[in-house]
């Protein structure tokens, strides 16, 4: 009798994610459809197929700015369907006390926004990433499926990036619909590098910039490397190799330096230090040599000066709007009021996610979020230090974790799975 009562009292697991309970044929079909959508979302996550909508606020001095254009991506559509399929559970997640406070703070920020239409769009993107985080948190997705999705996408990007690197231009054709942009060494603003006097096109893959490509696969690399849940050693090692090649091919100095530093720490803490010091030394040596080959390439000689100029602009914006900021997503229109020292630079966000976030939502909101999610932050540093510090370190030198679709949604996927 006690056993029977215990079974009755056992709460039914979340039906939206179809845990191990007896299911009707309809539920089984929905579960399979849900898993297919999750796989498609992971597969298309590196791509940027989407439709931009350019309004008056999307132009600065007559120049179209993608960052200010509301965009519907294929991944947005897949995310919307996933959220709709699990709507009841997602709503319960959103009425969590801390989530509600976060959304309320950002809602108040809209009142102080320089352009409310831009801020509303960015607010919707925040809702999306919170929803994606929950979807992958509760989906209990097969690690084999997750590994396969990341691997297929990475191999596709490696093949495309290699072709761009060899040909020194984009391939276009059908690849345009995956998000490949027109690239050529002769085009202004295209990321280039010089190695031993030879000019190189830094491959973009289907990303907006090689740095974004590097950051994306840097995060996946350390997620796969440090997770003990992936038992398929062969597929895991192949994915790690492909991610490494993409990081090197990007010629992103920050990503390569971060890759080298954290690999050194990981290897130093591994069992190799006790079991095979020669193996440890050889691995570190190979990583160091390969990394230095790519790090010695010369990229934009004005990169440091440009970044410092953007940081000065950000500090000026924060000084003028310290409490509430200029409104989420409104950094560029406000920065556009500053004099332009470098061509096209004024239409770029500051290359620091912390300065960018502070300038948009203000110091008060930053402090509030820090207090609100202190325990979660502390737990993240303890349980997934490599993931946390990869975002932290690369975020100090670039903005793609907040501004670009692929990197932004990847954070939601990784945190959800963790």
Structure description:
Helices cover 64% and strands 4% of the residues. It has 418 residues and is mainly alpha-helical. Helix 8 (210-226) packs parallel to helix 10 (253-269). The chain is globular and about 60 Å long. It holds the Pfam family Wzy_C.
Describe the structure using short key phrases:
two-stranded antiparallel ribbon; two-stranded antiparallel sheet; WaaL-like; membrane; disordered N terminus; 418 residues; single chain; mainly alpha; O-antigen_ligase-rel_domated; O-antigen ligase-related domain-containing protein; transmembrane
Main β-sheet, in a few words? 2 strands, antiparallel
N to C succession of SSEs: HHEEEEHHHHHEEHHHHHHHHHHHH
Number of strands: 6
Low-confidence stretches: 1-21
Instruction: Write out the strand line-up for the largest beta sheet, numbering strands in chain order.
Output: 1-4
Return the average pLDDT rounded to an integer: 87
Shape: globular
Total domains: 2
Per DSSP, what share of the residues sits in E-state strands of 2 or more residues? Answer: under 5%
Rg (C-alpha, Å): 23 Å
Separate helix tally: 19
The oligomeric state is single chain
Q: What structural category arises from helix and sheet content?
A: mainly alpha
What is the first-to-last residue Cα distance? Answer: 39 Å
Give the helix level as a range of percent. 55-70%
Keywords: Membrane, Transmembrane, Transmembrane helix
Pfam family, one: Wzy_C
Domain O-antigen ligase-related: 239-369
GO cellular component, one term: membrane
């Amino acid at each position: 009798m006690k056993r029977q009562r215990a079974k009755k009292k056992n709460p039914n697991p979340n039906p939206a994610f179809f845990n191990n309970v007896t299911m009707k044929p309809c539920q089984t079909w929905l579960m399979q459809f849900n898993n297919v959508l999750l796989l498609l979302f992971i597969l298309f996550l590196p791509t940027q197929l989407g439709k931009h909508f350019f309004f008056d606020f999307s132009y600065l001095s007559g120049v179209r700015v993608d960052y200010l254009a509301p965009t519907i991506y294929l991944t947005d559509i897949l995310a919307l369907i996933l959220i709709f399929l699990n709507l009841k559970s997602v709503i319960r997640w959103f009425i969590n006390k801390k989530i509600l406070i976060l959304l309320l703070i950002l809602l108040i920020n809209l009142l102080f926004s320089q352009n409310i239409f831009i801020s509303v769009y960015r607010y919707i993107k925040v809702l999306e990433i919170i929803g994606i985080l929950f979807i992958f948190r509760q989906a209990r997705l097969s690690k084999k499926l997750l590994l396969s999705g990341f691997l297929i996408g990475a191999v596709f990007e490696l093949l495309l990036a290699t072709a761009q690197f060899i040909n020194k231009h984009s391939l276009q054709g059908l690849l345009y619909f995956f998000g490949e942009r027109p690239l050529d060494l002769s085009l202004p603003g295209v990321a280039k590098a010089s190695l031993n006097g030879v000019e190189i096109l830094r491959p973009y893959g289907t990303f907006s910039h090689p740095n974004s490509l590097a950051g994306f696969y840097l995060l996946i690399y350390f997620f796969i490397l440090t997770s003990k849940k992936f038992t398929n050693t062969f597929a895991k090692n192949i994915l790690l190799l492909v991610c490494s090649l993409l990081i090197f091919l990007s010629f992103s100095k920050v990503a390569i330096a971060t890759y080298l530093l954290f690999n050194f720490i990981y290897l130093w803490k591994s069992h190799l230090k006790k079991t095979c010091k020669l193996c440890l030394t050889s691995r570190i040596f190979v990583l160091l040599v390969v990394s230095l080959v790519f790090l010695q390439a010369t990229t934009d000689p004005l990169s440091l000066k440009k970044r410092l100029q953007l940081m000065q602009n950000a500090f000026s914006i924060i000084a003028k709007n310290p409490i509430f900021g200029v409104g989420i997503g409104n950094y560029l229109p406000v920065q556009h009021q500053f004099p332009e020292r470098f061509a096209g630079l004024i239409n770029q966000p500051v290359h620091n996610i912390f300065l960018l976030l502070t300038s948009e939502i203000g110091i008060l909101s930053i402090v509030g979020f820090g207090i609100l999610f202190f325990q979660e932050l502390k737990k993240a540093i303890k349980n997934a230090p490599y993931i946390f510090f990869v975002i932290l370190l690369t975020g100090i030198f670039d903005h793609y974790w907040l501004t670009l679709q692929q990197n932004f949604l990847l954070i939601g996927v990784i945190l959800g799975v963790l």
